[in-house]
Amino acid sequence: MAEMTLSTKEFLFAAANLGAKNFFGISDPFYGMTAEEIRSECEKIQLSLEKKGYAEVGFEGDFALKSEAVSLITACIKCRSYLLVQLGEAGKSTRQFLAYAGESGLVGADVQGQEVSLRRMDKESVVPSVLEKIQPPASGSGETCSAVVKQADLAQVQSLAVDEPERAVGQLLDKGCPRELAAVLVQGFRKEAGRYLLFHTDVCERSLTEMMVIQSTAGAVCMTLEDLDEDLWKAEFLPGGITEESLKDLCALEGAGHEML
Predict the structure, then answer these.
(1) Residue 34 and residue 152: Cα distance in Å, rounded?
(2) Mean of the pLDDT values across residues 179-184?
(3) Residue 167: enclosing H or E segment and its boundaries?
(4) Cα–Cα distance for residue pair 168/190, rounded to 1 Å
(5) Mean pLDDT over residues 140-144, rounded?
(6) CA 109 – CA 117 distance, rounded (Å)
(7) Which bin fits 161, alpha (ψ -120 to 50), beta or left (φ > 0)?
(8) Which letter does DSSP use for residue 229 in this model?
(9) For residue 90, what pLDDT band results from cuts at 50, 70 and 90?
(10) Which helix (H) or strand (E) holds 251?
(11) CB of 23 closer than 8 Å to CB of 12
């Protein structure tokens, strides 16, 4: 079984059935439910997983996931590192893409609403998978440029961007940002351009690397943390849009088969 389509409840139920105590990257769909509601929901989930062909339920109610489903889900719950991409395209609801890497391979997960689609992947396909999801295609002109901006200044610009976009652009220009960079950044804050958050987590080292990408037809702005102590962000303007080179380090996933429990 190279692919599976599950509800988020089915996904987390199956992970828990295999021993996972926590699950990274997907919010808990059972949050706020009473114990009785959860018990009732789990009975429905077992029957649903059986109907989809992912599990077997015996006459006495004993439940077991099929080996192919176990293999896919185990790759997620025993990963060493994982990538989470929150996909916020202009005018659309937020979606997520995840890639989990462990000793049993790499599994990609597309999350849309309450549905999760799992599939086997290889390392070389992670960056292209992320690139194809970043929209719209950029075809801007000009040169690549960059600036370093304080977190506090970005927060102020974001608060201005909705009602006073020109003033927000002016604030960034005053802080040394090139105009092309400032314009795309404000478009992102106004949700007029695609806005994407990327997080690479090393589970064993408990380390997190993050990036924000804003892309419009005029180009992309790629933001990475420059100095944690000073709350400084480096913003780079890419007129042709985000590139494979920009993403390759963040999307490099290594697997060592450590339990995510």
Answers:
(1) 41
(2) 96
(3) helix 165-174
(4) 10
(5) 87
(6) 5
(7) alpha
(8) T
(9) low
(10) none
(11) yes
Alpha carbons 165 and 175: distance in angstroms, whole number:
16
Residue 241 has pLDDT above 50, yes or no: yes
DSSP, residue by residue, 28-91: -TTTT--HHHHHHHHHHHHHHHHHTTSEEE-TT--EEE-HHHHHHHHHHHT-SEEEEEEEE-TT
From residue 32, give the alpha-carbon distance in Å to each of 28, 29, 36, 37, 183. Answer: 9, 9, 12, 10, 41
Which residue type sits at 132? E
Give me the half-sphere count of Cα atoms (radius 13 Å) on the Cβ side of residue 105: 14
C-alpha–C-alpha distance, residues 23 and 207, integer Å: 16
Which amino acid, one-letter code, is at 170? G
| Segments making up each domain of the chain, as ranges | 3-133, 145-245
> CA end-to-end span of the chain, whole Å?
24
Whether the model clears a pTM of 0.85, i.e. scores above it, the answer is yes
Give pLDDT tens digits for 202-226. 988 889 999 999 999 999 999 999 9
The gap from C-alpha 55 to its chain's centroid, in whole angstroms, comes to 28
Q: What pLDDT score does 32 carry? A: 94
For the segment 171-179, the average pLDDT, to the nearest whole number, is 96
- DSSP-based three-state secondary structure for 140: coil
Which two tokens mark 222? 């790629």
Answer yes or no: are the C-beta atoms of 176 and 182 closer than 8 Å.
no
CA neighbours closer than 13 Å in the CB half-sphere of residue 234: 11
Cα separation, 258 vs 118, whole angstroms? 20
